[in-house]
Amino acid sequence: MAILKVARLGHPVLRQVAEPVPLGEIRSPDTQRLIDDMVETMREYDGAGLAANQVHVLRQIAVIEVQGNPRYPDAPRIPLTVVVNPVVTPLSEEMEEGWEGCLSVPDMRGQVPRYTSVRLTCYDRDGQTVELVAKDFFARVIQHETDHLFGTVYLDRMRDLSTLSHLAEWNRYWLGVREQED
Ligand SMILES: [Zn+2]
């Protein structure tokens, strides 16, 4: 396995649309290695998720996991979820503002409105069809990662940029004194 280089904002790959992975290619050694490397990279940098665009690959693959993550100390646990060719459908009109960060936009946080409940339909890493309903933080991460696959970053979703903060200032002025690493 390998830790992959993460593209930062300004790299064109973050603005491109990833291609769906043909079902027959999901179990190929190349795709499986990419998924393993994405998981390792996400864990190395304490991401809650990582989309293939962020590691310079235009395929519709994202990985999501939150457990004891120092970047999101109060977030509920999300087991490792590998998402291939996701289709995300909002299940209500309701949106909620919440803080997001992104490994491709280092050391920043901003308030982003997201649907509070979504249906996710995708393949898992074995090519099995998965359909699940996600709420709140899990729904937020799914929307964030799926956006990446279509060339969208969280900044595009912010209603205004007045909450956009560097991490140290976010800790100091928005969340109190707790120090946090990015
Ligand atoms: Zn991101």
Task: Describe, in plain words, how this protein is organized in 3D.
With 182 residues, the chain is an alpha+beta fold. It has helices at 29-44, 136-149, 154-157, 167-174, and strands at residues 49-51, 61-66, 78-90, 95-102, 105-115, 117-123, 129-135, 165-166. A hairpin with a 2-residue loop joins strand 4 and strand 5 (105-115). The chain is globular and about 50 Å long. Mean pLDDT is 94; it is low at 177-182. Zinc ion binds next to helix 2.
Concise description?
With 182 residues, the chain is α+β, with helices and mostly antiparallel strands. The chain has helices spanning 29-44, 136-149, 154-157, 167-174, and strands at residues 49-51, 61-66, 78-90, 95-102, 105-115, 117-123, 129-135, 165-166.
Brief descriptors of the model:
single chain, 182 residues, five-stranded antiparallel beta sheet, three-stranded antiparallel beta sheet, 31% strand, alpha+beta
Residues in helices, as a percent range: 10-25%
Class from secondary-structure proportions:
alpha+beta
Largest sheet: 5 strands, antiparallel
User: How many strands appear in the DSSP assignment?
Assistant: 8
**CA distance, first residue to last residue:** 23 Å
Estimate the strand proportion. 25-35%
Mean pLDDT: 94
